[in-house]
């Protein structure tokens, strides 16, 4: 079916439209209706019809109607609470249900995050070997109790055996290297295959990051099953497998999806949230805060992330509940202690040297790199994902995942910085060099005492080991950049936070070591002379890695405030906020110069979700009449009359059109607007009437007024549908600027808006009409962006 045919299905014959006025009393059905009843969205005197007010899959909720329903429910509870102790108890339960649901969500999110962290670490080490004394220990835990480890080789102990030692009986030599290489690749492919197979068979919605869809759902879109129990279970299992496979992805984004699944499932235990889609989204906003809280160990950052990045509607009480959910989740994760270091994340670091003013220049350069990387990544990844959608390659997700996993494993193994877990890599890059560090990045010639057995200060001449590590890091940077482009969007759970931070951390560490060596060899330059004394620590390469990580993540996501707070909570260094802010703002400015969309908004647009981004400005001078339907030369809009249609005529209109709702007018001659009725509500009301009322026939009169019209004595029983009629639909005049209309849709979360001229109905504007119009103004194909 063509796009024009789809649009024309919402019209009926032109003979139905005539332009005449009628008196105002007719709009209330001749009976006056009562002013009080017209103020309510639904006629509350009628018995509620089961199913009315619910939504079909892939439809947008009516925020205004949901808020009205909640206010009416609240008024009803308050009016009854003084009647008896039971009603008072019910009112207390209703008041506390919000705190209870976010508590349960926080508990579940923290527990699942702890399980995912522990399982992913164990499986990741399984690729290299196994602990003979206790199979369930990872490499680090296996060597904790060993008395035979040395300082230089603290990760080697008799209890831990590599696959070459187990299979060939030898730890060194080319044979053992090839065997370890083969087993590393085998396990990586096995984990990747198992992950993509589980997603494809049991829960297709468990793939990807989940944040673009969470943003769309929080804006009011319905995606049934996306936050269900099957999705939660499969996402939790496959996230562990995907991270352990070594693919260039992280678990932080998917943890937001996992937390939102928990919030959605627990909200069904409380009628206040299960029966109101708008209230449910308040729980999901709090859940997303809990997800970031356990992903980064950053409760405050999680709340700000929910506010800045994902939430569409964020009242003050949601802020408090988000804070509480993030607190509970962080507390549970801290109790589990998945990394054994009493921290919520693997790469928690503390720096002991201050930063100096001249360092702002390299920090800003890292911000520029982050912005350029973000703009390049968004364009390249979207181009690849679009190609995947439009070619046969996208029809074989299992083959694609296996191919990417094989290339990743084969290329990653020879380089120690790509072989290790990405979180461990970030930890090593963030860490400040000290006497207890055995990393190759810390192999400096001691300035203070050449006879020392360990490297002392970081401001010493770098040995060939450091330069070798820099070459390996440079290769790792190129590898990570290329593989992340092809990995994000695969049909496995895949987060973008950790790969982006790794790319920034590698670039930052390289820059940090370069500045450090520059300060050592040229300490008499005017830049360094005032701050850097000979032999003193003044450059911290780990700090540059942290700033680079924040800059690259900011360039990809365009986050600002929440990102700075997340990274600050990661490091615990209050004095490093200024460098972070400078780098993050620079990366945002540079990225915005190439396009204002972050990666999540770009994927929303790629998938065609009906999402009106509050950050996007509408600057065109069009009017409502230029966007509304029907357009010139289109068939007229399908409308219902308030009291002179039969049931057969109503069903005929419903069957011949595909609209989601119909304006109700006084008469064909008048065209004066009475209200708006949703297609789903009409269908449910008709089915309910036929089931419960006798005498409803095809020639029964259908009326939306307060009182039944005068009918002949032999007429069948009429059908009253006033209870499903929205008596106060939002209307604008045909001369309203579209800039105002777009603002109304964004701020009130409307599904549709009726267009009138002198009180006479002219047409309708829906959310999709606005998205099509915005695409048209941006010289894009208006139909290609819509969700299919």
From TrEMBL:
Subcellular location: Cell membrane; Early endosome membrane; Late endosome membrane; Lysosome membrane
Gene3D superfamilies: 3.90.1280.20, Clc chloride channel (1.10.3080.10)
Keyword line: Antiport, ATP-binding, CBS domain, Cell membrane, Chloride, Endosome, Glycoprotein, Ion transport, Lysosome, Membrane, Nucleotide-binding, Repeat, Transmembrane, Transmembrane helix, Transport
Family of this protein: Belongs to the chloride channel (TC 2.A.49) family. ClC-3/CLCN3 subfamily.
Organism encoding this protein: Cyprinus carpio carpio
GO cellular component: early endosome membrane; Golgi apparatus; late endosome membrane; lysosomal membrane; plasma membrane; synaptic vesicle
Membrane-spanning parts: 184-206, 226-247, 254-271, 283-307, 356-378, 398-417, 469-490, 502-523, 543-568
Record protein name field: Chloride channel protein
């Amino acid at each position: 079916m063509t796009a024009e045919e789809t649009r024309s299905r919402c019209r009926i014959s032109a003979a139905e439209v005539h332009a005449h006025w009628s008196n105002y009393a007719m709009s209330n059905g001749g009976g006056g209706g009562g002013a009080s009843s017209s103020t309510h969205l639904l006629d509350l005197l009628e018995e509620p019809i089961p199913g009315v007010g619910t939504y079909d899959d892939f439809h947008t909720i009516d925020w205004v109607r949901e808020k009205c329903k909640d206010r009416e429910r609240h008024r009803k509870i308050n009016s009854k609470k003084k009647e008896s102790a039971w009603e008072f108890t019910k009112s207390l339960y209703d008041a506390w249900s919000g705190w209870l649901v976010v508590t349960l969500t926080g508990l579940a999110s923290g527990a699942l995050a702890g399980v995912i962290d522990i399982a992913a670490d164990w499986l990741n080490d399984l690729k290299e070997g196994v602990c003979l004394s206790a199979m369930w220990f990872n490499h680090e835990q296996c060597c904790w109790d060993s008395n035979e480890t040395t300082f230089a080789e603290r990760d080697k102990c008799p209890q831990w055996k590599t696959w070459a030692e187990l299979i060939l009986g030898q730890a060194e030599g080319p044979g053992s290297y090839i065997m370890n290489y083969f087993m590393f690749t085998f396990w990586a492919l096995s984990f990747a295959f198992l992950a993509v197979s589980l997603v494809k068979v049991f829960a297709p919605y468990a793939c990807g990051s989940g944040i673009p869809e969470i943003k769309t759902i929080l804006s009011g879109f319905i995606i049934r099953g996306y936050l269900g129990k099957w999705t939660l279970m499969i996402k939790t299992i496959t996230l562990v497998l995907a991270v352990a496979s070594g693919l260039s992805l992280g678990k932080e984004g998917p943890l937001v999806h996992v937390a939102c699944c928990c919030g959605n499932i627990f909200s069904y235990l409380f009628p206040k949230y299960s029966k109101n889609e708008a209230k449910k989204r308040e729980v999901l906003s709090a859940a997303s805060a809990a997800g970031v809280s356990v992903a980064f160990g950053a409760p405050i950052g999680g709340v700000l992330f929910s506010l800045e990045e994902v939430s569409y509607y964020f009242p003050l009480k949601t802020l408090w509940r988000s804070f509480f959910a993030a607190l509970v989740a962080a507390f549970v994760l801290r109790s589990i202690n998945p990394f054994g270091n009493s921290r919520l994340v693997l790469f928690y670091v503390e720096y002991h040297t201050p930063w100096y003013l001249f360092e702002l220049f390299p920090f800003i350069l890292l911000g520029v790199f982050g912005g350029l990387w973000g703009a390049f990544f968004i364009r390249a990844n979207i181009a690849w994902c679009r190609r995947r959608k439009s070619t046969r390659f996208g029809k074989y997700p299992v083959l694609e995942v296996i191919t990417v996993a094989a290339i990743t494993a084969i290329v990653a193994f020879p380089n120690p910085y790509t072989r290790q877990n990405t979180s461990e890599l970030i930890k090593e890059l963030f860490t400040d060099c000290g006497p207890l560090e055995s990393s190759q990045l810390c192999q400096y010639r001691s300035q203070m005492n050449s006879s020392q057995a360990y490297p002392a200060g970081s401001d010493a001449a770098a040995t060939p080991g450091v330069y070798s590590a820099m070459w390996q890091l440079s290769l790792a940077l190129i590898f990570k950049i290329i593989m992340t482009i092809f990995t994000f969007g695969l049909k496995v759970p895949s987060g973008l936070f950790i790969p982006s931070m790794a790319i920034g951390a590698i670039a930052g560490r390289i820059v940090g070591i370069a500045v450090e060596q520059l300060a050592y060899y040229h300490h008499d330059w005017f830049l360094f002379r005032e701050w850097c004394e000979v032999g003193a620590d003044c450059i911290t390469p780990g700090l540059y890695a942290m700033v680079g990580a924040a800059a690259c993540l900011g360039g990809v996501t365009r986050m600002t405030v929440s990102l700075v707070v997340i990274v600050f909570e990661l490091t615990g260094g209050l004095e490093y906020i200024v460098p972070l802010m400078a780098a993050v703002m620079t990366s945002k400015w540079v990225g915005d110069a190439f396009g204002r969309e972050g990666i999540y908004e770009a994927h929303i647009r790629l998938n065609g979700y009906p999402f009106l981004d509050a950050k996007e400005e509408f600057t065109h001078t069009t009017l409502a009449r230029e966007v509304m339907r029907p357009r010139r030369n289109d068939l007229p809009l399908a409308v219902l009359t308030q009291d002179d249609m039969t049931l057969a005529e109503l069903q005929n209109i419903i069957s011949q059109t595909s609209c989601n709702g119909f304006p109700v007018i006084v008469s064909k001659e008048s065209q004066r607007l009475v209200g708006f009725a949703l297609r789903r509500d009409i269908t449910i009301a008709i089915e309910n009437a036929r089931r419960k009322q006798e005498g409803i026939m095809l020639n029964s009169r259908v009326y939306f007024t307060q009182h039944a019209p005068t009918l002949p004595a032999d007429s069948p029983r009429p059908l009253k549908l006033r209870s499903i009629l929205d008596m106060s639909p939002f209307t604008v005049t045909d001369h309203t600027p579209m800039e105002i209309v777009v603002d109304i849709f964004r701020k009130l979360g409307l599904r549709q808006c009726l267009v009138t001229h002198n009180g006479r109905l002219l047409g309708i504007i829906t959310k999709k009409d606005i998205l099509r119009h915005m695409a048209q103004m941006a010289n894009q194909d208006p139909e290609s962006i819509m969700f299919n």
